[in-house]
Amino acid sequence: MQVRYRARVVALAMVTLVGAGGCAPDRQADPGGVGAGIAPVGSAEQVTGAGAATLPDRLTGSTSKPRSRKLQPKVAAEPTRTTKAPKPSSGRRQPSPTKANLTRCEQGEHQREVETYLARLGGFGTLTVDGRQTDADCAAIKKFQQRYDIRPAEGRAGPTTLDVAKRLATTDVKRCSAGSGTTFCVDLTRQTTWVMRDGKVVAKPTVTRTGMAGYATPAGTYKVNLRNLKEWSNPYEVWLPYWQRFNGGIGFHETTTYLHNAAIGSHGCVNLLHADAVRWWELGKVGSRVVLVGRRPGT
């Protein structure tokens, strides 16, 4: 009985490892394509410390309790001309200009860098590039995190937020030789993608995740040759939503795993967030040009 049990385990391991060509997201994905295999909220940031628990009313300045002040009405030296009694002050402590502003958002270790890149990108609100967290900064950072599915989206400038902001802000759209018509561009080095039409950007750079080590997505120029709203991957038994194939078994599709988990990757495909996969599908068609430049680090 023990020999038969070991034989079954070995056979099962061989079936898991063997697969045909083509790409698909990590096997954590939901076979039904609804994303049930997505990593738990906050897991990726917590690995690097960015997702540490924060107090809802935590102050970015001193954490000591303010001393209470008993307000005494002022007594005039000579009450011969008493007018209205002076109003007592509210007793609120005003933030000192030499200390960090008070805010409900925790300040991350990459505050100034994130502020700098978000200010360069624009479109996320008003930021002050000074390395000090404010409610306005927090709102802008949170909006950025929500747009690119960075978890948790709490307005804290952690490592993942810095990484994404830097990659997007430093993407050079001119590296893509677009030409006429619609061209999907992919910067494999920065792991970003954008769309151009007749030489103009019609979809700004967004994040992507391409082939992992051993399955590097090749650079080059290709054309979309097959499109399917929901393609089934036989080798990896997973749905590929908004599928646009352009090179063998490689194509664009929505990922069903947490995109910012850099420890995993596709088997060559260009993974997209849901909103971007829908947009790429709307812009593309059979014959659309695809240009990939650079190489993903570590592959």
Automatic annotation (TrEMBL):
Residues 182-293 form the L,D-TPase catalytic domain. Pathway: Cell wall biogenesis; peptidoglycan biosynthesis. Residues 91-101 have a biased composition (Polar residues). Pfam families: PG_binding_1, YkuD. The keyword Glycosyltransferase does not apply. One of its GO terms (cellular component) is extracellular region. The keyword Ligase does not apply. PROSITE patterns: LD_TPASE, PROKAR_LIPOPROTEIN. It comes from the Bacteria. Keywords: Cell shape, Cell wall biogenesis/degradation, Peptidoglycan synthesis, Signal, Transferase. InterPro entries: LD-transpeptidase (IPR050979), LD_TPept_cat_dom (IPR005490), Peptidoglycan-bd-like (IPR002477), PGBD-like_sf (IPR036365), PGBDSf (IPR036366), Transpep_catalytic_dom (IPR038063). Transmembrane segments: none annotated. Residues 50-110 are annotated as: Disordered. GO terms for biological process: cell wall organization; peptidoglycan-protein cross-linking; regulation of cell shape. Residues 1-20 form the signal peptide. The active site is at H253 (proton donor/acceptor), C269 (nucleophile). One of its GO terms (molecular function) is peptidoglycan L,D-transpeptidase activity. PANTHER family: EXPORTED PROTEIN (PTHR30582:SF33), L,D-TRANSPEPTIDASE (PTHR30582). This is Putative peptidoglycan binding domain-containing protein. It comes from Micromonospora rifamycinica.
